[in-house]
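Exercise 7. Given the encoded structure of a 280-residue chain, write a plausible sequence.
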């Protein structure tokens, strides 16, 4: 399992230390865990901490942060290079900024295959075409030769997914993988993801603002507020969440058959960030 206990991420500033993540604890097996919350709640920083990609001068500490017995906190950078992509991969939010703009996308996918599976150039190219087909990209022969700026948002996200799944990782962190997509493309990309994840039996952390999406896609949900997890619940029962912050997020969702003159305004109590409810 992927286990996190009392994770803290701090950033020193001229005005003092900022606690981006505070005492976050959860575990993930071969399942899909959703992490939801507003922008700035610490969701993406939590994912980056697992990858050991929190930028300096950020300080990451935890009582425990392990991947199937491997201590991610004490692992050397050489060990982490072997873990990233092969054991634990992360699909970033926007492919326009995550992909290398001066390399054809096929070359970038092939590089992952060569680095983590030891494939030669011919094998890596075959694997690249195979993965582009797996994410339902038409004409993969052409697409592998194009540069990131030549791709639409949906195709860019599919290329990112193909790249991160190329080495068949055990665990996958999805950071808002569909936020830049239109509704139709979002459904297609999620269907592709669900198919590939189920086929490979991966563990997934799905970071999102979309409560309805997480409720339908994930098995469990953790709700974050001000750097802390304030509630854990079964995804299918997210609508029954009891914490005032969770209830506020749910109440703010527009509903097509609910004719309200105004949507409820989120009221935040700083005391909600004072303590979390423990590990999942």
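Solution.
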């Amino acid at each position: 399992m992927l286990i996190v206990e009392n994770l803290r991420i701090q950033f020193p500033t001229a005005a003092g230390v900022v606690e981006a993540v505070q005492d976050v604890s959860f575990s993930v097996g071969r399942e899909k865990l959703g992490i939801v919350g507003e922008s700035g709640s610490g969701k993406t920083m939590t994912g980056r901490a697992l990858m050991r990609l929190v930028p300096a001068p950020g300080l990451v500490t935890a009582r425990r942060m392990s991947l199937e017995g491997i201590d991610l906190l004490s692992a050397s950078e050489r060990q982490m290079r072997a873990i990233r992509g092969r054991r634990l991969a992360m699909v970033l939010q926007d492919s326009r900024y995550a992909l290398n703009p001066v390399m054809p996308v096929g070359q970038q996918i092939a590089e992952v295959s060569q680095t983590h599976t030891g494939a030669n150039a011919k094998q890596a190219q075959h694997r690249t075409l195979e993965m582009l087909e797996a994410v339902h990209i038409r004409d993969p022969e052409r697409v592998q030769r194009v540069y990131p700026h030549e791709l639409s948002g949906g195709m860019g996200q599919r290329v990112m997914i193909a790249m991160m799944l190329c080495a068949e990782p055990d665990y996958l962190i999805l950071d808002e993988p569909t936020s830049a997509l239109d509704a139709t493309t979002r459904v297609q990309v999620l269907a592709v993801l669900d198919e590939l994840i189920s086929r490979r039996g991966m563990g997934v952390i799905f970071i999102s603002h979309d409560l309805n999406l997480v409720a339908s896609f994930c098995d469990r949900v953790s709700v974050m507020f001000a750097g802390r997890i304030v509630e854990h619940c079964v995804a299918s029962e997210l609508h029954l969440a009891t914490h005032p912050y969770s209830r506020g997020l749910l109440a703010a969702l527009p509903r097509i058959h609910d004719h309200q003159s105004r949507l409820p305004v989120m009221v935040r109590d700083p005391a909600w960030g004072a303590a979390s409810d423990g590990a999942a």
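Remark. DSSP finds ten helices and eleven strands in the chain. Students should compare their own answers with the one above.
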